[in-house]
Amino acid sequence: MRLYLVALLISTAHALPDGAPTSACNTLKPVHEGALPQANLAPYSVFVKQQGDVVQVTIGSNLGVPFQGFMVQGRTPEGRVIGSFQLPGGSQAHTIDCKGAGDTATHNSPEKKDLVNLIWVPPTGYQGSVVFASTILQSFETFWVGLESDVVEVRRRSVRQDSFYSNCGVTKYCYGAPIDCVDAQNCKVAVAVTSVGEAFDFELRANGNPAWVGVGLSDDARMGDDSVVECVKDKTTGKVEAFLSWTTINPYGAPRLEKPQEGIRLLNASVDEDVLYCKVRRDTVTNIKGTVFDLRANSFHVLVAAGAELKDNSVGFHDLSYLASPDPQVLSPNSQSLFVNRPDISTTTTPAYFEPPAARPAAAEFDAFYEGCAVTKMCFGAPEDCVRTRACRAAVAVTVAGDRYDFEMKATANAAWVGVGLSDDAKMGDDSVIECVKTDRGVRSYMSLTGIKPYRAVRLQNPQLGIELLNSSVIDDTIYCKVRRSPVTLVGGTTYDLTNNKYHVLVAAGDSATPNSVGFHNVQLPSKEKLFLSDTAEVAAPSKLLVHLHGAFMLAAWIGTASVGILLARYYRQTWVGTTMMGKDLWFAWHRFFMVLTWLFTIAAFVIIFVELRKWSEENNPHAILGTVTTILCFFQPIGAYFRPHPGTSKRSIFNWAHWLAGNAAHIIAIVTLFFAVRLTKAELPEEVDYILVAYVVVSVVAHLLLSILYGISEKSGDSRVSSFPMKDLGGSGRNSVYNDRNMDARFSTARKFILGVYIVIILVLVIGLILITVFTPAKDLFR
């Protein structure tokens, strides 16, 4: 009753053809102009049924009345929205995020529905009562708000011993040999099929050191004229590949198709001791040998097999295991309907009320690694916030079940290794690390301890003590592993108690490794806070404000203010003649202003980065050394300028050379340093920044060239020099050309002013663009 009264509050939601908006999260009430919720008894119900650790939620009508829209949530007795819905591909529903990820389900389209089956997953660690509150719409004008299910008593959710069989019969179809092995979780060969959008994922596994494992789809439960997905282990390399084949009887065979990988894609594969595993995505509809296999519209007998022999372009006999399902199967979980004696509803007078649904954006590519993140497992990756977008370059997922701590790690971009560290301070040093390394014999896992001086990750004397490699693969440019770690380990004299202690989680990956150690990390990120590894909440990265400020200040200094200040001093001493600012020639006043800004920006940036790092940079990159040299040169420039000798004195030439050399050296080294910054792990800058820096160099060279040409023409014509600081004056007093004519500008002053104006505009645009990219890192998507 409480939920029903809450649902009557005013909401700002609007009717949508493809589901309820998040503005209806609190009230569950649609705002349909002129329509109010029905007060009479609803012809619909929300039925619930516990299935292991999850709850099946079914929305429908015992009277056979179809409906067009709905919105449903799992709530505690206090009204708090909890849990999440799991929806297989092809479902009539999708999830939205109200209080948490996927905690609310709603309809996909206004098509009439008899019933909708959903799977609801409780949050980890929750135990208590749950009621499912919903709104069900028969039409635009007719809807019921606040319909509640019976109360469900939720147990603390556990994790099955073998994740391969997890949710079999709930969110995926499973079959294996021998008979009834799926329930016992001891199959010799098995397949698990999950509907994913417009495709189906086939997970295959076989024991007994097989050379191949396969699943066939048949019309008659007998081998022959069947479509087969097979995973084959290469005898020489051990690499697993997937193929489509077609079975024959006379003679026996399973020859591969002419294009054996058309319509399928290998997602994951591993060989772990005597177990062969693979995961293959297959198109929903394929045309094979003139026969159309529609996995969503048709049912098939499922044949599973594995063998130890291989032939040329074919698998051998299934001598390890074989079994065919006695009845044709639909390749998605068959949830038994909770509604009985439903009348024929072939006709209805229910009015349509929705406009045709707008085209929905294509779903992001499915990646099983991220399934369950922030729901059943803790996930963290680099770059920042990549778990949400499912686009991590390096990531770790931790699943806790009792005293088992399973670490899944993956890295892309042809990484040679990926690792996860547990730290007390979010910085590398004295940290316990699990590393998975690509070797000639596959992926191997080790325990190591990090050090700083020098940088290293030293493997323990017994590097497998306390860990067990459960699964691993290298597919395309991605390395993956799953490692189980003991809850209590002694590493480097420190006890790591994963159950009772919190740790910063550090994830890293690199493209180089030796037989005894991993190389430097190209990707690295620590968690902001210490965490219990059993905590499935979203993991945040530490603030990068100081890193961003450092980059922004250096860009403003050396691309911006220094560039303009140097240009003014070299080419504009005979421009704006007679115009002063605070008693100084205009060119000098502006030159001093820009160079003082350069000094302030540089010193501030130098201090900021040391406050952030609190140490010398550990990256194998000359950026830190070059930046320090630039800062030192910059620091002494204004001091030297303050004590400069007067024009005409004997030591003026020494100052001219020193000031010119130090200033130009600092500027050139600073620009080179910025190029090296693009390669820094912490910067996370896209490589396209190189092109912007190159554009800056080109613009600067062109500006200097044009101004030098104007100077040369002016000098040749006998006019006063454009510059009072040309190279041949460095050894003199600097007076011979400065004072030729103090009453008028040198020739081409208008052209020089125009070039300066264009140059400043271009530099301003480049600086703003570079600072925005730096501040909003990682910014790779800006260039895609």
From TrEMBL:
Q: Which residues form the signal peptide?
A: 1-15
Q: Which InterPro entries match?
A: Cyt_b561/ferric_Rdtase_TM, DOMON_domain, FRRS1L, Reeler_dom, Reeler_sf
Which keywords accompany this UniProt record? Electron transport, Glycoprotein, Iron, Membrane, Signal, Transmembrane, Transmembrane helix, Transport
Q: How does it sit in the membrane?
A: Multi-pass membrane protein
Q: Which GO terms describe its cellular component?
A: membrane
A Pfam family found in this protein is: DOMON
- Primary localisation category: membrane
Q: Does the keyword Ribonucleoprotein apply?
A: no
Gene3D superfamilies, sorted: 1.20.120.1770, Reeler domain
Record-annotated Reelin domain positions: 2-167
Every Cytochrome b561 domain range: 514-714
Cofactor requirements of the protein: heme b
> GO biological process: any one?
regulation of postsynaptic membrane neurotransmitter receptor levels
Q: Does the keyword Transferase apply?
A: no
Describe the location of the DOMON domain by residue ranges.
Answer: 185-307, 392-510
Record's subcellular location: Membrane
User: Transmembrane stretches, by residue range?
Assistant: 552-572, 593-611, 623-643, 655-679, 691-713, 754-776
PANTHER family reported in the protein's UniProt record: DOMON DOMAIN-CONTAINING PROTEIN FRRS1L (PTHR46902)
State the similarity comment: Belongs to the FRRS1 family.
Mind telling me what this protein is named?
A: Ferric-chelate reductase 1
Organism expressing this protein natively: Phyllotreta striolata
